[in-house]
Amino acid sequence: MPIIDAHMHTYQWNKYGDPPEPNLITRNVPAARSDDEAIDAYLAEMERHNIVLAIGSGELETVEKWRQRAPDKFIGGIEFPRYTTPVYQRRQGWPDLDGLRQKFEDGTLGILGEVTAQYAGLSPDDPQFDAYFALAAEMDVPVSFHSGFGPPMSAQRGDPGFRMRLGNPLLLEDVLVKYPRLRVYIAHGGYPYIDDTIALMMQYQQVYVDLSAIDWLLTEDEFNAYLKRLVQARLEDRIMFGTDQMIWPETVRLSIAAIERAKFLTAKQKRKIFFENAVNFFDLEREVLLGGESVVGPNGKIVRVIRGTIELRPREPGAYEEVEVDLDLSGVTSAAVRVKGFDVDATEEAVMTINGTEVPLPPEIVSDMQERSVTIELPEGVLTNGKNTIGFLFAEAVGGTTGYAVHDLRILLRK
Q: Which of 240, 253, 388, 412 has the smallest number of Cβ neighbours within 10 A?
């Protein structure tokens, strides 16, 4: 089964001492005595367990070192405002916003965070974070947000502002209201705030969680009870696997085993947690991760147009919704639109337009509550450089239906 590690760290080998600290659970001391050895140790675990991609944060210099070593294996992020630098020095810093924008644009960084507000004694709605969240929302960059707990006695071990109450994921609510397009994944499953985590995720569908750290730090019974609550709340499509690997590569094995031993999970649910949910959240190309070719070819691009569902169910005939998307068509030779929807009994009732031009929905999407995905090739000239408007009209009720919904809409730009 392919695995995506949605939460690990690209740390220096001696971040927590020379020699390094032993693992909190196994008490094993890492063998690496250089950054290269630490990178190789994690890469070996990726190979051993079929981890096809890792999303990791740290200091910019080390993030780049890990990416340079295996450019197709890592998506990087910057940890702030609190972080540790060798040897066990706790520091605080705020990244330059213009520099961040540039690194998001050129692909050097792919996420914002891990945002460690709790360690700095700050709530996520503190005004100091506003510009960073605004940038992430504008550029559609995912945010990794630390939640829950920290190392025992954190307030006495270098983070005097650390408070457990600041790790409650529900504190993100005002941020999510202010920035409705912000994509956030809550680190460590929001543990131990299970009720508040579920409440937040039920209300804000762009919020995911990762299971990092709790899948190897907690006892098996405690971890299973927590994960089971998330699944029972029908949130299985927004739970991602993570290790929180810092300097102990064995946490990869321990984390994977915790998911595999969860008998209440079906094989399909395990695949979602290990792989599929991260593919959806990070907008990854499944075909490429599994060793195939990109659907858009070399240098092409997939642009996700919507994040929340376009609902025209139940609605009266004539109901209309539209979305806008900015496109850069430089070098684009052909384009297509990919639509995923359901409850479309006949194409007559659902009309899609792009910049005023009707683009017929093909027969494959006639599904009667069975969600389908279709790819429609676009004639030259339908898309424009800059702003594009895509509209959906519930034209008429056919066969007694009450409408339809679009769950995913993407533009495929081929170069």
A: 253
